[in-house]
Amino acid sequence: MATVKDIAIAVGVSVATVSNVLNGKPNVGYIIRRKVLQAAKQLGYRPNRAAQAMRTGRTRAIGLVLPDLTNPFFPELAQAVENTARSLGLLVCLIDSQGRADGESDGFALLMQHAVDGIIWCPLGPRPPAALKKLDRPVVLIDRPGPGYAVVHSNYQMGGRLLAQYAQLMGHRRVGLLSGPENLESARQRREGFVNAAPDEIDIAWEVNVGFDGVLTPQAVDALEHRRNATLIVAGNDLIAISAIRWLSEHGVKVPDDVSITGFDNIRWTDVVTPRLTTIAQPVGAIGKKAVELMHGSMSGEKIPARHTIFDVGLIERDSVRRIGRR
């Protein structure tokens, strides 16, 4: 098995330089860093992480705390994070909060016990768990904005605007909203982007808030049953939209012939549900990659500013919206 000394000989640098590169320290130039990493890969070098942790006090493990792995969006996000982390030699410890505040708090406590070097966190709500206050490691928020942290997320207001523009293009003026949770900034921004895009062109016939888990409340079912002349239903995410399509189909209402529906996220189910769902696509891979890069930079000694990194989104047009009238 290759050693640090073998890599140093192959590249023509000191053992200390190789060690700095493999431990993610920033005091090595880009060219030398690349040569060391290439040599390590070619020689099949596998670091002894346990020994490194004993020596440096760093585990090169990061926590990933997600709200609910039954929502298909989050496994895709977890995969994006893990792919980038693995390429940087980082281990990801995944916590599923299962939609519960105590699950989130317990997850943070468990990650602290395992001495992770930092945590990438998608919050359940606006209040951080008590365990977070005791954490002396960097935290990067992902997908859901929040104050006081570095955050990586999509341009939700842009997504709302795109849906409003598309609604106008397809001739829809009376719209029902199955908005996401009121306590989540990401849900509020989606709604605001839509409502504020064309207030004189689009009439909001009704609005009900639904959890991002897609479980329809009695109020949501009542809104779907009566619809109040809404020709288009704009859902806060894809799970809500798919649940609405299923309920309408079970009650003899055809989508999009009788009413149109849009989603948000572009989870993989959107292309297999009938009808295929028109939605907003988030660049999940880029979001996960950037969050890990910020965390890795912090672990290497860089200071992460508490600012937002925001990625543009795009409209994916499929079969769930019918054109009405002429535009």
Walk me through the structure:
The chain has 12 helices and 12 strands. By secondary structure, it is an alpha/beta fold. The chain folds into 3 domains: 44 residues, lambda repressor-like DNA-binding domains (434 Repressor (Amino-terminal Domain), Orthogonal Bundle); 125 residues, Rossmann fold (3-Layer(aba) Sandwich); 127 residues, Rossmann fold. Helix 9 links the parallel strand 6 and strand 7. 40% of the residues are buried.
Relevant terms:
alpha/beta; 3 domains; 434 Repressor (Amino-terminal Domain); 17% strand; Rossmann fold; elongated
Report a brief summary of the structure.
The chain contains twelve helices and twelve strands.
Give the CA-based shape: elongated
Low-confidence stretches: none
CATH architecture of the largest domain: 3-Layer(aba) Sandwich
**CATH topology term of the largest domain:** Rossmann fold
Count of DSSP strands:
12
Rg (CA only): 23 Å
**Helix count, DSSP H or I runs of 4 or more residues:** 12
Total count of domains:
3
Reading the helices and strands in chain order gives: HHHHEHEHEHEEHEHEHEHEEHEE
Q: What distance separates the N and C termini?
A: 69 Å
Provide the structure class.
alpha/beta
Mean pLDDT: 90
Helix and strand layout, with pairings?
Blueprint: H1 4-11, H2 15-22, H3 30-43, H4 49-56, E1 61-66, H5 73-87, E2 91-96, H6 101-113, E3 118-121, H7 130-133, E4 139-142, E5 150-154, H8 156-169, E6 174-179, H9 185-197, E7 203-209, H10 218-226, E8 232-235, H11 238-250, E9 260-262, E10 279-281, H12 284-299, E11 308-311, E12 314-316
Parallel strand pairs: 1-2, 1-3, 3-4, 4-5, 5-11, 6-7, 6-8, 8-9
Antiparallel strand pairs: 10-12
Helix pairs in contact: 1-2, 1-3, 5-12, 8-9
